[in-house]
Protein 1
Amino acid sequence: MYRKAFTMIEVIFVIVIIGILAAVAIPLLSTTSNDARGARIVHDLGVCIEDAGSRYMKSGSFEGTTQPGGNQTASCRAADLCFNFVETDSNGSLTVISDPAATSAQCQEAQRIAGQNMMATTHVINF
């Protein structure tokens, strides 16, 4: 009597193909995840810059917008992971500097994107 089933060779062949596909796909998914996190940080940086500009226009000071600690806005707290801010209230300039100590893959991606969009690497914004 003949039974219809897969042979051991066919099963092993399918397992090898699935292993090869997984070996290619998993690193790509991880890279995409870092890209997305980096893009989110850059978006937060843009919102932080807008918040700082609004606060400066309203009160003539950056007080509490970008300083660590204080009542820093949520977007600035997120962007502060990868960037440093230097405020100058006297002339209304906000300098955004890539933080060299931030070495995570998402921070490096965020700094790369921000650099391409001229949002960081010692970029001065005058309000």
Note: Residues 8-126 form one domain.
Protein 2
Amino acid sequence: MKSKYHFKFEDLIVYQKSIDFGEAVHISCKKFPREELFALTSQFRRAADSIALNIAEGYPGSDLQFIKHINYAIYSANECVSCSTKALLRAYISEEENEINRQHLSELTKMLSSLRKTIKNRQNKSNT
């Protein structure tokens, strides 16, 4: 998906991967039962989308603001772990799908933690 209008945060690999994860969750949730539409389905989709949304929202701000939004993205990723586990326990997804979700979420949280550390290190260098 290329646009002639580009935003710098779109270059972040963690952003690109979080976009992909949100879309994968959206597709996966389509098989959840209708009774979950306003419960687990909605919660899982919102948490998954929130990862990329927080990266985008925090990027143009100060380092402190960006770190705050990276933390929110990590919280959302952790929420997705719980949603995936609930979906597995309710037999909406397979063990393999749960493992794939967990693998993606592990990668995303490591990348977000690394990005947060890089920003903090940059802050510390500029303060000395």
Note: The domain at 13-123 is CATH 1.20.1440.60 (de novo design (two linked rop proteins)).
Protein 3
Amino acid sequence: MPTADSVPQLSALRRIRALSWPLMVLISIALGLAVLIAPLELVALLGFPRFGSLHNFVSFGGMGVGVVFGESSLQRYPGFILVETLTAGQRWLVAAIALACDACNILALLQLRSLFALYSRGIVLSTGNVARIKKFGLWVAVTAIVVNASGRLFVRVLNTPVQGVANAALAVIIGAMIYVIGYVMEVAREAELERQEFV
């Protein structure tokens, strides 16, 4: 039988679970797409420069390397490069850049999905939650640095403009803030456990 004090807690827990489940589903879809697209990009870069009349183009945006198929007229736009015009060395380097950016994005999404999976099961203030918040903050910062450095390398190697690179400084600050929030939660949780043991 729930006590008067536990009724608001149970209500809050139900709301957290109800909000977290759809977010976990959306993050899972994003994670699945990222995991699916990454190897396809590598195959397109290294093995299939064109499909019939469609050409394979590579570009660099805020999240890293992007591979698209389109008509040859697409090369008129700045930042779109025909893969078939690249040397083998350039293709391998672009593939390595794509892999680094994709891996960082996937690892950040994985931590976020794991966090909301815990929330959707009603686990809110566990050590698992704190660890995932800290790891997500860490991967946000690492991803920003990797994508920014990759964009600069992309420009240098292919001598072409990029469509946009995420603001690494801002993303690193946000990632660091998320990490610190996780650390504060960890310290607060330990203090609460000590208080309960003392009482």
Note: The chain has a mean pLDDT of 83.
Protein 4
Amino acid sequence: MTTVARESRETKVRITLTAGTGAAQVATTEPFLDHMLVALARYAGVDLVCEATGDLPHHLIEDVAITLGHAVAAFLPAGCARYGERTVPMDDALVQVVVDLGGRPYYRGPLPAPLYDHFFRSFADHARATVHVRVLRGTDRHHVVEAAFKALGLALREAFVETGAVFSTKGAVRLDVTP
């Protein structure tokens, strides 16, 4: 289990991730964000508890992504498969997401909804993950964004698998920070 809390003058966010079945309890005051986080947890196969409040939708969505990214980085098993890829169709939308949880933050999109494109970028930066999102088809922004969250969840599910080996020619990387 991993819990990360983030608080500023603009937002208050608390996220808990647990290995599980994809159950989610989400309350962010933004119904669409709630819906996307529930879908992400379900498809990633992790249990998620998220409580968040904020002054503006932009601040709330960004800070939830930052907090979720930190939680995912802390949640990773040392010998995880690291890589995952999924393409998800949803009505008119077809979206591919590819992830590498190897500690190098990079995001390439875009999604056609600026707030959720920013969510994916903030998530990638703070999860220290490479995340590529390709919108192959789609005109309904709701469907495109939802397909992207589901594809991210399925790609994370693949990447989270404990393999017992470190998938890097460098071996395990250790970083010690002393204040």
Note: The radius of gyration is 15 Å.
